[in-house]
Amino acid sequence: AQSVTQLDSHVSVSEGTPVLLRCNYSSSYSPSLFWYVQHPNKGLQLLLKYTSAATLVKGINGFEAEFKKSETSFHLTKPSAHMSDAAEYFCVVSLADGLTFGKGTHLIIQP
Amino acid sequence: NAGVTQTPKFQVLKTGQSMTLQCAQDMNHNSMYWYRQDPGMGLRLIYYSASEGTTDKGEVPNGYNVSRLNKREFSLRLESAAPSQTSVYFCASSETPERGYTFGSGTRLTVV
Asked: What band does B1 get if pLDDT is binned at 50, 70 and 90?
């Protein structure tokens, strides 16, 4: 069985400060891991993916995530938040029968 | 533009009515998926199709049926809509799970 836990349902940061969105996973297999972003009333957009190559993965819009097998974590970070980063973020584990989604973290950017 | 196209974008149904949500992809992907999104629940898999001619149940299949009409199209049918099926429905496709998924823009369904 596999599961994904996003540790924070809401995260609020000030514009220009770092962003950290936390994700832990459990999987019986070597997982593929993803972060997706969903802006209000929009579909889901792939931010980045880990597929057993480099453990530090760079994505779009300045986001990156580090796969830590010993901690079963795949946290998403960005050095400096922008107002346009306000959105819902989903950590996702992939196996052959589809994706398992975390429940999402709502990122709020304070001006 | 290449991608996943869902129709309709919005729909209001009365309890007991039926409807079919359409999904088509033009990326020659083998696998297609239907998810529903509810507040605080993330996305939950309803049905998927690993290849043309096959379909399998996901986490929340009750009240739904699917048809993989050909490699491009994967439809989701509600035979007798219930208020509990009020949700946003997303179709997705993939070449392989490791490469990630492409999502459609969603169908917002309200059952009254």
From this structure: low
CA distance A18 to B104: 30
- The residue type found at B58 is G
Give the whole-angstrom CA distance, residue A74 versus residue A92: 10
Res A96: pLDDT: 63
Number of other residues whose CB lies within 10 A of the CB of residue A82:
13
Which candidate, A93, A95, A86, A99, places its Cα nearest to that of A67? A93
What is the C-alpha separation between A100 and B57, in angstroms, rounded? 14
A102 and B105 in contact by Cβ < 8 A? Answer: no
Which residues 2-41 on chain A approach chain B with CB closer than 8 angstroms? 9, 32, 34, 36
Residues of B in contact with A104 (CB under 8 A): 40, 42
